[in-house]
Write a structure and sequence with these properties.
The complex is a heterodimer of chains A (313) and B (525). Chain A has one domain. In chain A, 71% of the residues lie in helices and 0% in strands. By secondary structure, chain B is of the alpha+beta class. Chain B has 3 domains: 118 residues, 2-Layer Sandwich (Beta Polymerase, domain 2), CATH 3.30.460; 34 residues, no CATH class; 288 residues, Orthogonal Bundle (Cytochrome-c3 Hydrogenase, chain B). Chain B has 18 helices and 15 strands. In chain B, helix 9 runs antiparallel to helix 10 and helix 10 packs antiparallel against helix 15. The longest helix of chain B has 29 residues. Chain B starts with a helix and ends with a helix. Classes of the chains: A mainly alpha (313), B alpha+beta (525). At the A-B interface, helix 5 of A face strand 8, helix 9 and helix 11 of B.
Amino acid sequence: MTGLLAKAGLQLVLLLLVAPFLSGIIKTLKARLQTRRGPDVLQSYRDIFKLLRKGMVIPDTASWIFSTTPYIVFVIAILVGLMIPMTTTDAPLSLFGGVLAVVYLLALGRFFLALGGLDTGSSFGGLGSSREMTISAIAEPAMMLAIFTVALGANSTNLSEMAKVAVSQSWKFLAPSQMLAFAALFIVLIAETGRIPVDNPATHLELTMIHEAMILEYSGPYLALIEWGASIKQLVLMTLLVNTFFPFGLSSDWTARGLGLGLIFYLTKMLLLAFLIVLVETTNAKLRLFRVPELLMVSFILGALALISTFLF
Amino acid sequence: MSAFFEALQQKFGAQIQSISAEREEEIYVLFGDPDIRALAEYLRSAVEARLVTVFAEDRRSAEGVFFNYYVFERKGDTRYLIVRAPVRADHPEFPSLSAELPAVNWQEREIQDWFGLKADGHPNPRRVALHDNWPDVHPLCKDFPLETVLPPFEGERHIYRPALGEGVFQVPVGPVHAGTIEPGHFNFAVAGEPILYLQLRMFYTHKGTEKLFEKLPIPKAVFLAESISGDSSFSHGTAFCQAVERAAQMEVPLRALVMRTILLELERICNHVADIGAIATDVGFVVANAHASRLKEMLVSLNEQLTGNRLLRGMVCVGGVRRGWDIVQLASLRAAVDAFASEFQDLVALIDSSESTRDRLEQTGVLRPEKAKDLGVVGVAGRASGMDLDVRRDHPYAAYGRYSFRVPVYQVGDVIHRMQVRVDEVNESLGILRSAADDSLHGDFRAQVPPIPADRCALSAVEGWRGEIIHWIRTGPANHLERCKIKDPSLNNWPALVEAVQGNIIADFPVINKSFNLSYSGTDR
């Protein structure tokens, strides 16, 4: 039990600390590619710290849903984070749930975020919630299909089991099913983390926002929780992607050496993925809102093909 | 008098009291009747004249009546035809032209609000320039002192037309916006994402600028003109100085005219390149904006080097410009133009090569040419929708007569064509700058201003980067003005935005709005 707690504690610290760092890295890289100097990588920490100390403005029309949403979003992001292998194949909470739990916990968080957006009765929140739900309706099945492709190969939907199988086998990323599933999951990642070409995290134009429109009414510590939660969710999805398809360096035990080596591998992989995301964001314009479902349909079809091809090859 | 005026005399001889040419380019027709509907219809159908602007003047103390002024222009004629129609003080009504010419919708309502003259038969006679909660005052009348302090407003606020139907929602946006822009209220009626109807509310920053002009000595009023619309400082300043120079009947030295031309074009390029970047930002293609901002910075630095001000303020003055340029400044002008030109081509190529950006801009926010014509849309937005207008070509001023340039006109009227007009214009402007930089830049740059006689009228038009800017003045005694009418191109173009967004999705509104990029301050004055 204490071992489990220690593992969970360690991974929790990792989640809380690495997530803002990764957001900062992405922002800095983006700025550099736009010929700007940009904020330094620590800015995300400062933002969270600043927001936590600030007062809040809560609309008169807000109900308990508005106030509970930030906690739910934050807790769910952490729960999901503890279910996936980060530096070792052995995730602390893997016994409690597999990929299905991950997908549906994320859906629960989104559900509450959408409710929080609607709760105040602001028209922007409503716009954001309706858009988010439209997009997730397609992103969710696409994600399931892609993940199931990998689960099928490992004969388990438990993420730790999947990781163990992946590490023990020879690397088979070049198999069609793996590549298709990776592409499908990458598109889902873009959509779920609200990045260009699906959503623009840096815009100030309320009318074009998706994620930002839902949280427009939040301020202070609530906003800090939501932003922190969103960056953890981003970290989790990125981790899922790199560790599922590129399981290099995943330590199979919780020894200090294994963890250290695992951490170095892990961070390197994440930086590479972050760079890929930044490249996509920089070279593309945002899609027309009604074309976002088309992009997600592509992801869905890629996921379906991936699943089918596991039986063919 | 040409055949045209003989025909006019013949047809409306009974009402026309006099036709006089104040100066070569300004023909004043004194009409006997406030009802100019038949004349307007004749001018529109027979000579395809365009009603440029409508404004009023309080002449009760001098002539016992108000006057309405209708400024017309027609293709291929550098003259403006200005119809003066009296409106009786004891019966302050004039027949509205808005039903036939929607272009004057807001302008007629401004006359209602500011002078208390009723536009009879106006299809939507509600307040526009003074908000609904204002008390019943008419600030541009001569009996309304500028220093008046009004009590806190208690009137009823504006009531928007309701949008009804299943699943139809109203999305109110503004007047306070995210980002550093000015206030304006946008009330969208949406069914899901598509916009059914947009109601605009402007004039939140109404500053009584036209009234203020009547209080300032003319040299000081130049600064006021420069601050009518911050991004068009030099254009508005030039338009004002030109009007005063015409009223004073003075010659401006050629060197000053060439310098003004150069600065007008620098202002145009500056704003166009910033807009091109801003349009790219609004569809999430931020890299293009990063480069556009860099290019804009090259130009504002040049502006500072040439005039001491990055936004070209404080340079223009009545009689010319404030300072001349030496060899070093001219050399940096030429160098900056060359450096900018090649970088600008790279920026255009970058945007052209981005499929996803083009996809967002094509067929978005279409303003059809018929609508543009009805609404009298001018400038960049007009030229993207088939309105072949450009003051620089149609009524040459400054030194534009000396250079050749092309006026880009497109018929499609979507966002990408409004951007294309800007791209083409920047290229043309670079050509003008190159010719002008080698032109006669020696001699005087500022002429002595003679005493300005009272009671002279003068009209001045400048093609600002956004479109046609009109200033009309009547001089008064002691170097003051009796009246200064300002028309910013934004005033005509705001209602066109309403047409352009219809049927588009609400998420595309910001980029459509940006492609027009209208001035709040210039509209509100």
